[in-house]
Amino acid sequence: MKKQVKNNVYWVGKVDWELQKFHGDEYSTHKGSTYNSYLIQEEKTVLIDTVWAPFAKEFVENLAKEIDLNQIDYIIANHGEVDHSGGLPELMKHIPDTPIYCTANSVKSLKGQYHEDWNFRVVKTGDKIDIGNGKTLVFVEMTMLHWPDSMATYMTEDNILFSNDAFGQHYATEKLFNDLVDQCDLMQETLKYFANILTPFNAILRKKLDEVIALNLPIDMIATSHGVIWRDNPLQIVEKYIEWSKDYQENQISIIYDTMWNGTKELAERIAEGIALEDQEVTVKVFNLAKSDLNDIITEVFKSKAVVVGSPTIGNDILHSISAFIHYAKSMKFKNKKAAAFGCYGWSGESVKVINKLMTEAGFEMIGEGYRNLWNPDENSKKEAVEYGKIIAKS
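-> structure tokens emitted (395 positions)
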């Protein structure tokens, strides 16, 4: 069932309540998601994006109940990734000659994924199409936000920015708009989305946001491809993106560890105690990586000014969970964050040295040489770990 967004603009997407993982198994979606597709019915009828492939048949059947598919004049593909374009193969069986407006890179993406040579119309920033009743669609390339083919579409008069992945969140809801949902849930999922998906592109994002602002377009709504539509003060999320893209950090230190026989866990808790004793204003959070969600932890790293990483030594190395975490953190290209290392060992004790090396390569500024402890911590070692926490706080 279509839902009115504004005037002759309708949502015709899919709410996916059961989604738990996204991008394969890379991204956790504890609150599900939506795949937002939009139908514009002016003098010209326009469909903006579709849904993820598993829902393609359902999507086309539902769309056909709302409108004769042959009445669709234009299709806009803001992004070729399958969660947005997955409905196209099923839809194009019914209307194979309908023009698809997209970027040149999106043509490559769509052809590469679906092996179809549809009626593509390549557009670039500033290109327009007249949809009647005095309204125009204006295209804005959003290269690398977060794929090379990404773009946004702006609708004049109604002042709606169809932003695709930008400004979205994986958040399943039957409520279309940002002012109708739980604000804590909304901002947490929006921050997590930014931290895990857009952080690597901060430099590009800052430039693109400046370009969009320079266009001086009146924006009454930002219609994303996942989650809610921003209608209540829509520029609030643009302001947040500007803030988050500037190597964001809060007054927070996160301790992230994995442990074998709880020795490294004991050190983590004592280090946290030391940080809190030295700096009563700082927020300290402790995560056992084996019992925590990686994407949620990366969100906390995004917020942190320093990260303390711990692993026992195993096979002259670190636990694979910690290695995977650091590898993922490196891909985020974090800037202006410090790190420290710790861990227990029984024989040779290389884990701290390995963590120092890997975290340096991941772009973190290391605090000292780290703290390591032979066997399980005794009372003296626990006190040393507390002191090490104080050193970290002072840094």
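The mean pLDDT is 96.
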